[in-house]
Automatic annotation (TrEMBL):
InterPro entries: Lant_deHydtase_N, Thiopep_bacteriocin_synth_dom. Residues 909-949 are annotated as: Disordered. Residues 757-886 form the Thiopeptide-type bacteriocin biosynthesis domain. Pfam families: Lant_dehydr_C, Lant_dehydr_N. Residues 912-939 have a biased composition (Basic residues). This is Lantibiotic dehydratase. Residues 49-692 form the Lantibiotic dehydratase N-terminal domain. Coiled coil: none annotated.
Amino acid sequence: MYRALDAAIVRTAAHPTGLDIPPWPDLTSDEPHQVRGWRDWLATVWAIPTFAAAVTDASPALASQAHHVLDGREQRPRQVRRTVASTARYLLRATGRATPFGLFAGVAPARLDTATAVRHGGGHRAVARVDGSWLATVITQLETCAPLRQRLPVVANTVHWLRDGRLVAGLRQAPGAVPDSQPVEVSLRHTPAIALILDAARAPIPVADLADKLAAEFPGTPQPAIDRTLAHLITQRVLISSLRSPMTAPDPLAHLLDQLNLLDADQIPQAAPIVHSLKEIAAQLDHHTTDSDQPSTTVTAMTVLAAVDRPLMVDLRRDVHLTVAPLVAREAERAATALTRLTPHPFGTPTWRDYHSRFLERYGVGTAVPVLEVVNPDTGLGYPAGYRDSLLKPPATLLTERDTRLMALAQRAALARTIEVSLDEALLAELESAGRATVTAQPHTELAFRLHAPTPAAVDRGEFTLVVTGVFRAAGATTGRILDLLDPVDQQRMTEVYAGLPTVRDGALRAQLSCPPLYAATENVARHPALLAHTLPISEHHTPADKRLNLDDLAVIGDPHRLVLWSRSRCRPVEPALFSAVEFTNFTHPLARFLAELPTSRTAICAAFAWGPAATRMPFLPRLRHGRTILAPARWIMTAPELPGPDATWTQWVQAVARWREHALVPDVVYLGSTDQRLPLDLTEPAHLRLLRDELDRRGRATLHEASSADELGWIGGYAHEIVLPLASTTTPTPARATSVHPIDRNHGHLPGAGQWLSAKLYAQPDRHTAILGHLPALLSTWDTQPSWWFLPYRDPDHHLRLRIRLTSTTEFGPATRQVGEWAAYLRGLGLISTLHLDTYQPETGRFGPADAMAAAEAVFAADSTAALAQREYRIAVTGVEPLALTAASLVNLTVSLLGGHRCRDALADRPHHHRTRPGTRPAHPHPGRAPRRPRRRVGRDPRPARPC
């Protein structure tokens, strides 16, 4: 199902687990006599230059406290112990966690080769960057400089809607001097002046030219008022200046200086001091080193411009050369395949299945709905449930057969007092949620894992264990931000891999998403170089380019199996790629998340193994092994009530932990926490137990996972590590079908009383539908001239009959509503219906075509409903008529009428004798006007017109 790609990276801790350090300090009490021992321990570890530099970079406040302790200014036992305990946590992080963070861990490229080889060098390189919050503050200062602002090129923010006479700019970073406050939505009056500005700023235009256009169009407006309006729009990011770099610019300070040079900003007296300071800071960063006083000098210069806590960010390029043997690559492929087969959602998450269903219900099959219209919460669907600010209710979490089987596996392991469950092929097949159904796998993914083996030679012999530590949403998600740290040869190799990744649909255009995160500080980990030929910018300053996609060109189209993002100008599907691992819900712009998730929303996602929702609070979950791979490590939850309380002595507490460990089979070495926040602990070490007790005192519970021992890391020199390997699906992309694009806007559909249609919903049990239809002639007889009409059994979510009646004019709606209402009241009196709803009629122009084509389809619906009603009456009047036989004859007659005799014969001959709907899909309703045997929510068929677009 997956094949490994030669674009791996290795993430390693800066220090090995066997780092030569003194015995851990005694943290079990706050006695005054312990202060000297704590200070001696702190002095020893602070003498490790790389560790001291890492702590100073990560927490200047802790570094200051440490210096106060070391020079004797801090003598209070509790404060000294707190400083030593915090330093101990950082030391554990520096030796036990591979996630890149400052100088604690770094990255290096890895190659797929014929044998495993590891070499650790001494040429590690720290790369300094300016912090996103600091830079945002500086840019805001520059944008408020009036002479410079006049020269700034600006473009209109592409994410906005019109609502009740106001322009609403979508969620984005908070403006002003506090760049990391909560994201906001901006609303301002949509005046003719604002409309002119937005139209003129579709492409970059200098602010001075915009001001001239406004003055020419509105000659009575004072110039200061024009300047204030433009300044306000820039501050609110309705207009985006060229000083704010796209996310595809890994060095935003260099971009800023380039733009300032183009504008001759250093010739503007008000801006020149800032420009000169920025150039000095950039020069210092080019020669950044961690073993001198230069970092503090640079930070001092930066805080003069903008006072933020950490103006400087550092990434570490490790001098590690690693090649990975084919056996490891094959094992990673098998692991990714197993995780895909074990997914609880082989046809997309419940949230996306619900959204897909809502889309088809609202817009129908084949309709092209502009992206910004779909996600508009007022006139469209809004964002899927679980998205930031979404108003949709998440689908209910259900206990599945898969969950039940997994719980049984975990319980059997607990009863057998074993911490491992081995997953063979038979058990894997049993746990597959999709059963034997054909699923579409996501086209690519990224697998993070560590290897356990004593030596590289053991790895090559297959004597290793692969431990999955993470699965990321797409290839390049974690590696995109660190590519500029690598050598040009490695950058080129990986870029070529990313450019050639497969797509869900054959012929889809891959475009690189570029969108600012919701917080300026998050830009530190969200930037990535341009890797694809085409880009899709969102809320960014951009220049016109043939290979830049525009949001207003993109539409969403639905068919019964998936949603597709479609370029109307290029007549092909688009699959955006986001080369960032920034968390989606709270930190990523919801539109960027929507566009990134949509193409794979109905695929089987390769994700970290999940035991199911019922397992989240289980006190123990066993290790899950598949071949050489550990898909999920053993996990324990320790809660405070299981152990003595705060008043218990240290000895009592330690003894209780020992009993709990023996009962629960907890190993000596564990990780405290999970994912990127885990901390390695040795539960035989009192100082580590003290850290565990502190965690329990703070949170009331602690999550523990089994961890790697020093011997298991021998092959890589004892370093905590993760290998991140991209993988591509080997399955054939879904064929691209010819697609007829029929775009609509927010005014699509006939509102009650505002069009020539009356659409009524009669809620009733399915078994009552025939009786209700038997009374339909009485309703139709109330018209002098019988109108065109049709009915449709439906469930959304309750069973009902939909009745649609064409009116001759909008003035007829009132009398027609009275007629339908009186008829419905009569039916309710007979006990046949519960309620009547009047609804908007949404013609399915995507399926049947617009204008005359839709009118022709509606004529067929009406004729078909008339025939269906006659057949129902015939079944009642004539005894011995088999309903299925009558339905079959009717369908054959309908097919012959629409296709012709020969084509109908060929179609029936090609159909399997024992046709069954493919598992995992809903059977399509044969026709909108004909009731299925058991009414259910209708999902339409794929349109197959002769020509695309």
